[in-house]
Amino acid sequence: MPDVPANTPPEGRDTNRPQEWFRLFPSLRGYRGAWLTSDISAGLAIAAVGIPSAIAYPAIAGLPPETGIYASIGSVIGYALLGPSRRLIVGPDAATMAVMAGVLATVLQQSPALSQAGLVGAAALLSIGVGLICFAASALKLGNIASLLSRPILAGFFIGVAISIIIGQIGRITGLKIESDGLIAPLAELMDKADDIHWPSLLLALMMFAILQIVRFRPVGIPGPVIVVVLAGLLSIMFDFEANGIRIVGNLPTGLPSIGFPVLAGLPFAELLMGAAAIFVVSFGAGIITARSFAARTGEDVDPNAELRGFGTANIVSGLLGGFAVTSSDSRTAVNLSVGGKTQIAGLAAAIVLAIAVAFFAKYLRILPIPALGAILIAAALSVIDLDGLRQIWRISRVEFVFALIAMAGAISFGVLQGVVVAIIATFVYVILKETQPRVVLLGQIPGSQGFYKLHRSAKAQPIPGLMICFVQGNMLFFNADHIADRLHEIIAARAADTRWLVIDASAITQIDSTAIAMLEDLHRDIERMGIRMALSEVQSSVAALMQRSGLSDAIGRTMIFEDLDDALRAFEAAPQG
């Protein structure tokens, strides 16, 4: 019997209706007992992969290791409560952590006396804030806000984030205290302090990094981070790394996380709110891409608005348990699929294993060497860099490639948090550039063939004597009306002497405004004085309604507005000449 698709709602059910919002454990509907063994096995594998990143990732934002474990536990519980996907696994993410690090750095600037406990509280508040924003966005059906950062700009931004993370590990793998920020300053500080490098730490990091790369290119059935954590822990015991100057994780809390709302007192509210918004944009943008990429493999559908509720609950529960902001995890989801996990029971099983690890084995985790965790973070950052994707962007569009570089430079030069702003601005600039200059091309026919063809694309296509057909490839709004008008006047100026009609193919125009209406009215008057009749074809219903209310339809003439180009051509051929 085939598996039930992860995000397929029951027949006829609208998952965005209010009564569907708080239907608990939606991914467990139709659960089968035969899946339990697969889910528990997948949960063990997810926990094994999750422990290294759970301990390592908090260091990106200067948080203690236990917060990563709390986030890993809370997020999967929260997502299971309301998340729609059966197989998607949420958890700490390098890019989200990097943005949160930038937000926390801003918080520390506003509150320099903030203690470590206060920083943990700020991270938890940010996570809850991200969750609340997710619910608000879902209520407003803003699931498509994930497209706020385009794939090219996300690709460039993530490369910038990865480079920032790698630079941030210099101190951890060398044993130095690097105080500079940015890209060049930490490297310069490293050169100045080269004589003080703790070589055993650096050699250990290099060895662990080499193992990670070997396992990456020559898989052995056990994830590289698991091998590194086990091996580094054994070496730490054998050679007493702590006594030999290699920094270790240190004592971890041995109790289970308690539920509680973090205190806001003394924390800058405005910075936290704006920071939560920045984290939301990046985490949901990256998370929905991960969700869609895995859904494509399993033949599932992704409902962004339902995913917003799943991510929202994951972040809120993570924050209430003392964790931080999370999103979908590609590594944990990949392990879940590879082991055969069927539902979110796998995530819940992983949470139980992580809770047991904290309660009973924290004393064994304390001896993990920091340089090994730095190597894991560097390897994770490198995995984010998609050079193949960047090369493909270069092949497809040089303009998009430039914007990817802008996003990358923003994250590196201005910091990850400011880089989010740069990436969003770059997205809007790119959209505006595309929308302000829609193409306006001439159409014709190929003798012996049906349909209409772009004259500049097909050498066989020929203009129709006496008839100009202009295809406007985009909306007509205030910011591009002048460009379209200029292009149409250029075409009209170069017309053949026998031109009697100008037909505008409006099939691609889904939006029009009063500025564009006025432009078309002026165009109609101009060409009418030249003895040329104006017509429109395939006008969308919403556009037609606005044209009717403005009086443009009456000015052009209802008989000059056609269902399609074939109707327009027949009317042109039947019209008397002269």
**What is the CA-atom radius of gyration, in angstroms?**
29 Å
Strand fraction band? Answer: 5-15%
Instruction: Determine the mean pLDDT.
Output: 89
Unreliable runs: 1-13
Q: List the domain count as a whole number.
A: 2
N→C terminal distance:
72 Å
- Number-wise, the strands total 8
Domain STAS: 457-572
Transmembrane segments: 33-55, 67-82, 117-140, 152-171, 197-215, 222-239, 259-289, 345-362, 368-389, 401-433
Subcellular location: Membrane
Pfam family, one: Sulfate_transp
Topology:
Blueprint: H1 18-21, H2 36-56, H3 65-82, E1 90-91, H4 94-110, H5 116-139, H6 151-168, H7 170-174, H8 184-192, H9 199-217, H10 224-239, H11 269-298, H12 304-320, E2 327-328, H13 330-339, H14 345-365, H15 370-384, H16 387-396, H17 398-413, H18 416-436, E3 439-444, E4 453-454, E5 467-473, H19 481-493, E6 501-505, H20 514-529, E7 533-537, H21 541-550, H22 552-556, E8 561-562, H23 565-574
Parallel strand pairs: 5-6, 6-7, 7-8
Antiparallel strand pairs: 1-2, 3-4, 3-5
Helix pairs in contact: 2-3, 2-13, 2-14, 2-15, 3-12, 3-14, 4-5, 4-6, 4-11, 4-18, 5-11, 5-12, 6-15, 6-17, 6-18, 9-10, 9-15, 16-17, 17-18, 19-20
